[in-house]
């Protein structure tokens, strides 16, 4: 058996700056200029794919990095902390917010990842004391 959790993810910031992305693509284009014929054609095709293939959001980025999708249905993702620390370290300008709701009542949490480090926040259920003035 195992413990199932529903995961969702969001982010703040960009995985990389536009300047960094443009510089990387410009460098590839510069390298492609020194090629000729079929090699140049293949390099330019690869550059075009790189320009269009980048992830659009945190979920796509994480799925791309992991090679599987833990966000569709509840699942067992026991290595989520290790995986997210690694991904977060790779994209240090982005705050990743991983949310989980386990199958046990009250198991609700958020984990914030930045630069390979994590802050965990667990839901707190507060039941107010009896207040006679609230009787209806």
Topology readout:
Elements: E1 5-12, H1 18-33, H2 37-53, H3 58-66, H4 80-90, E2 95-102, E3 108-114, E4 117-122
Antiparallel strand pairs: 1-2, 2-3, 3-4
Helix pairs in contact: 1-2
Notes on the protein architecture:
The chain has about 140 residues and is α+β, with helices and mostly antiparallel strands. It has one domain. The protein contains four helices and four strands. It has helices at about 20-35, 35-55, 60-65, 80-90, and strands at about 5-10, 95-100, 110-115, 115-120. The protein has a four-stranded antiparallel beta sheet with strand order 1-2-3-4, covered by helices on one side. Helix 1 (about 20-35) packs antiparallel against helix 2 (about 35-55).
Brief synopsis:
With 136 residues, the protein is an alpha+beta fold. 39% of the residues lie in helices and 21% in strands.
């Amino acid at each position: 058996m195992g413990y199932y959790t529903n995961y969702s993810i969001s982010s703040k910031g960009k995985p990389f700056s536009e300047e960094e992305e443009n510089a990387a693509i410009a460098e590839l284009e510069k390298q492609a200029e020194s090629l000729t014929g079929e090699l140049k054609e293949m390099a330019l095709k690869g550059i075009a794919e790189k320009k269009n293939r980048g992830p659009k959001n945190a979920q796509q980025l994480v799925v791309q990095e992991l090679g599987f999708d833990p966000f569709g249905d509840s699942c067992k993702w026991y290595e989520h902390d290790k995986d997210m620390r690694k991904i977060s370290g790779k994209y240090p300008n982005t705050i990743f917010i991983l949310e989980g709701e386990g199958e046990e009542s009250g198991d609700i949490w958020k984990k914030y990842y930045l630069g390979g480090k994590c802050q965990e926040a667990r839901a707190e259920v507060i039941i107010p004391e009896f207040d006679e003035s609230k009787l209806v």
